[in-house]
Amino acid sequence: MLTDLTWSPMAYYRGYLSLAVTPLRWLMDLPPRVMTVIDQSLSERDELLVENDTLRADLLLMARKLQRFDSMDNENGRLRNLLGVSKQLDLRVLLAELIGVSADPFSHQVVINKGLYDQVYLGQPVLDEGGIMGQVVEVGPYTSRVLLLTDAQHAIPVQVSRSGFRALLLGRGNDQELLLNHVADTADIKVGDLLLSSGLGARFPKGYPVAKVIDVIHDPGQPFAIVRCQPTAQLDTSRHLLLVFSQPSEPALSPEAEKLTPKASTPPSSAEDS
């Protein structure tokens, strides 16, 4: 300050001195600036991580909802198909849902959520949108057990849609294969033929799809041909089923059901009892 008062050229040189110390000032201010930038970057990174976690959670929730929508859409399609089937049958039907599957690999049975109080009876035919699935073999108050076509103890009379040839279709214990019994080697049947329920025995509704012929084996040394068939019903995927009330008489009940309803009648005998 004394120099500024006594020596006037000092004001001129002061500008050069300020210019010379400017880099020193910038270097002194650099650490605080760097720390500020780092703090901002870390803060923004934390915010981005939180936002990413939120978006990831939202994405999972949306994916779950989309899966449910797809499942509901497929289920609605199957229910629409079942509704169309019920209109074609011209018979009273009851919609049921599959709630259990037999754990025994040698027994092809399922459990449905309809029973005595829904007027389900022994021998009642069970269908899906593809064709006949089987028949009721046990009735409880609120649930019933269904024997599927593929069970080794099941048999159903059928006829070929194309030629009218009649035969007995047997289960083999295989989910995807049935066998026509005692088919003459000269019978008019070939691969691709559709087998319909014949209605014999008055147990299953007549003219409903049962299976398609997938193989016909002619053995010159045997009197009968081996005819392998595949069920048209989706036995391993269908969840909603139709119970068909094809008998005009009072429905038959299981022994447990008879205790609850003593006036119940017994079912008529049928050629395809399994």
Which labels suit this protein?
alpha+beta, disordered C terminus, 33% helix, 274 residues, elongated, 12 strands, six-stranded antiparallel β-barrel
- Backbone CA Rg: 39 Å
Give the overall silhouette: elongated
Query: Can you tell me the CATH superfamily of the largest domain?
Result: Rod shape-determining protein MreC, domain 1
For the largest beta sheet, what order do the strands appear in spatially?
Answer: 1-2-5-4-3-12
Please tell me the CATH architecture of the largest domain by its name: Beta Barrel
Number of self-contained structural domains: 2
CATH class of the largest domain: Mainly Beta
Question: Which band does the percent of strand residues land in?
Answer: 25-35%
Number of strands: 12
Helix content: 25-40%
Largest sheet features: 6 strands, antiparallel, barrel
The low-confidence runs, each spanning 5 or more residues with pLDDT under 50, are 248-274
Class by helix and strand content? alpha+beta
Report on this model:
The structure is a single chain. The chain is of the alpha+beta class and about 270 residues long. It has 2 domains: about 1-90; about 90-260, Thrombin, subunit H, CATH 2.40.10.340. It has helices spanning about 1-5, 10-90, 255-260; strands at about 90-100, 110, 125, 130-140, 145-150, 155-160, 165-175, 175-185, 195, 210-215, 225-230, 240-245. The longest helix is centred in the first third of the chain and has 80 residues, at about 10-90.
